[in-house]
């Protein structure tokens, strides 16, 4: 019986070629994979969003639902698809807030959407790649976005302002800096000096 010996030069070369082929295949597949419908649950599972990309004859759609005992109740509906969203609840407004990221590329970074804020079915505010760069976000070329230049950030989530009924959507950059946005307006909140990174 023949056994595979990884220590031989021929076997090592074959293994490297296989890894290279798989890496190329994964990158190519990631670039070509079409967006698909998904469900995102937030707010302790009480609310969730169903996000569907556009299809022939049907626009993109994001629907927010409230979980009920017998049948889930539609809350808000939007004509957009986002690869990643966050949900928040405002006890002040009694409405669900949505933070959506975007994929569309533009040669003009001041017109390329990165973050869109919504509340109760209405659009509040948009931040472009250029806006996030001014806040401190680095940028990179992303293969799965056909080589577009995008801001690099992480969606942290929705957080309560201590001692209040106010909430913020929070993003962070690789530097450790965070930015907080009021869920009622989408406006960037100024942090006290002691809280800045």
Task: Give a verbal description of the structure.
The chain contains two helices and 13 strands; from the N terminus they run αββββββββαβββββ. With 197 residues, it is an alpha+beta fold. The protein has one domain (34-195). The protein is globular.
Present the secondary structure layout:
Layout: H1 9-32, E1 38-42, E2 47-52, E3 61-66, E4 73-78, E5 85-90, E6 95-101, E7 113-119, E8 122-128, H2 129-135, E9 139-142, E10 148-151, E11 154-160, E12 167-172, E13 178-182
Antiparallel strand pairs: 1-2, 2-3, 3-4, 5-6, 6-7, 7-8, 9-10, 11-12, 12-13
Give a nutshell description of this structure.
With 197 residues, the protein is an alpha+beta fold. The protein has 2 helices and 13 strands.
- Please report the distance between the alpha carbons of the first and last residues: 62 Å
Radius of gyration: 21 Å
Domain module tally: 1
The pLDDT mean sits at 82
Task: Spell out the helices and strands N to C.
Answer: HEEEEEEEEHEEEEE
What share of the residues lie within helices? 10-25%
Low-confidence stretches: 21-30, 192-197
Strand content: 35-45%
- Largest beta-sheet details: 4 strands, antiparallel
- DSSP summary: helix tally: 2
Structural class: alpha+beta
Shape from CA axes?
globular
Number of beta strands: 13
Major beta sheet, strand line-up: 1-2-3-4
């Amino acid at each position: 019986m023949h056994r595979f010996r990884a220590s031989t030069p021929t076997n090592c070369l074959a293994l490297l070629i296989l890894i290279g082929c798989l890496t190329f295949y994964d990158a190519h597949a990631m670039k070509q994979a079409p967006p698909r419908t998904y469900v995102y649950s937030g707010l302790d599972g009480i609310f969730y969003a169903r996000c569907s990309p556009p299809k022939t004859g049907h626009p993109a759609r994001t629907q927010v639902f409230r979980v009920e005992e017998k049948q889930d109740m539609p809350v808000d509906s939007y004509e957009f698809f986002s690869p990643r969203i966050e949900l928040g609840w405002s006890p002040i407004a009694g409405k669900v807030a949505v933070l959506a990221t975007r994929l569309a590329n533009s040669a003009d970074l001041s017109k390329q959407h990165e973050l869109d804020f919504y509340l109760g079915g209405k659009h509040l505010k948009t931040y472009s790649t250029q806006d996030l760069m001014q806040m401190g976000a680095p940028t990179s070329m992303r293969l799965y976005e056909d080589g577009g230049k995008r801001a690099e950030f992480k969606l942290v989530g929705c957080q309560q302002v201590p001692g209040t009924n106010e909430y913020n959507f929070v993003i962070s950059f690789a530097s450790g800096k965070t930015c907080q946005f009021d869920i009622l307006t989408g406006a960037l909140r100024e942090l006290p000096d002691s809280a800045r990174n």
